Amino acid sequence: MLRTLCRAGGAVFKNSQQTVPRLWVTPAQQRWASRLPMNTVVLFVPQQEAWVVERMGRFHRILEPGLNVLIPMLDQIRYVQSLKEIVIDVPEQSAVSLDNVTLQIDGVLFLRILDPFKASYGVEDPEYAVTQLAQTTMRSELGKLTLDKVFRERESLNSNIVHSINQASDEWGIRCLRYEIKDIQVPPRVKESMQMQVEAERRKRATVLESEGTREAGINIAEGHKQAQILASEGEKAELINKAAGEAQAVLAKAEAKSKAIRLLSDALAEQNGNAAASLSVAEQYVSAFSNLAKESNTVLLPSNTGDISGMVTQAMTIYSTLAKQRPKVERMKTKTDEPSEEPPVQSTAAQ
């Protein structure tokens, strides 16, 4: 008997449906003009659906998913509410931004019924009401923003619309989960001006980047010149130091060589026949100097006795003999003072 009633109820649910004429509803309202099942005593409610039952025209209870039993003639299924998340397309509409730009904008609304009683008796058509509320809220929120902020703050715009819808739809038992803007269309002239603005901004960035690159290049070149000059000055300094050190070493080497030469000369003069050797050396140097007089310049100064070589040699030897006589005197003075003599006698003669 129970099985027969269930089959009969299913057949009646499929064949007998109460629908609203399509001429009286919009596509957005067809969802809520749902098909109402008839009371067949034993009913099976699908999952994620809530059937609102009235007893003698007054709200009685909400049928839960599963097996339910109703009283014939007294109980009637008045509304069928879906508890799934519903997606609603918000139609395209025009809105004016804060800077007086007319925009064509549409969106998608995601909502869910939390209270079937309020969704059934709180508003006549929940989907149509939420759609109209979304459109009006969208226009009011767009009027608070300029055109540039509309594109940059879409996330905050969506969250503000959701918050405004939830404040009004709480009495309807509907919860708006999120709202997404699908497309924003601007007038052609405004779009052209936006493109020109973008191009100008890009040219500005390119010019700024180029100027920054030029500045960095100039700074790098100046730093390079500075480092080059510093290194060059340090190189010149090191070169001068090395040159001075080399010249000092050369002077010391020349002085030591001259000192050794004077010592050797003094030793040679002290030997036997030293005077003769000195006379021969002076004569040779005189002849050599006389032969080179006319090689360096055209002006030549000659003494009156140029041909008297023996006289010149005799004069040089006289000077040498005079200096040699003064040498013993210096040695006797050093002996009297008992001071050790570290330098050769020839050096004292050369100093005088």
Short description:
This is Stomatin-like protein 2, mitochondrial. The termini are far apart. The strands form 3 sheets. Strands 3-2-5 form a 3-stranded antiparallel sheet. A 3-stranded antiparallel sheet has the order 6-7-8. It has a two-stranded antiparallel sheet with strand order 1-4.
One letter per element, helices H and strands E, the order comes to: HEEEEEEEHHHHEHHHHH
Overall structural class, as computed from helix and strand content, comes to alpha+beta
| Number of β-strand runs | 8
Number of helices: 10
Summary tags:
three-stranded antiparallel beta sheet; Band_7/SPFH_dom_sf; STML2-like_C; Stomatin-like protein 2, mitochondrial; 57% helix; 18% strand; disordered C terminus; alpha+beta; disordered N terminus; mitochondrion; 352 residues; Band7/mec-2_domain
Your description of this structure?
The chain is α+β, with helices and mostly antiparallel strands and 352 residues long. It is 57% helix and 18% strand. The protein has 10 helices and 8 strands. It has helices at residues 2-15, 116-121, 126-142, 147-152, 154-169, 188-270, 274-291, 293-296, 309-336, 345-351, and strands spanning 42-45, 49-55, 58-63, 66-69, 75-82, 86-96, 102-113, 174-185. The strands form 3 sheets. The chain has a 3-stranded antiparallel β-sheet with strand order 3-2-5. Helix 9 crosses helix 10. The chain starts with a helix and ends with a helix. The model is unreliable at 1-34 and 341-352 (pLDDT under 50). Keywords: Mitochondrion. Its main location: mitochondrion. Pfam families: Band_7, Band_7_C. It comes from Sander lucioperca. Belongs to the band 7/mec-2 family.
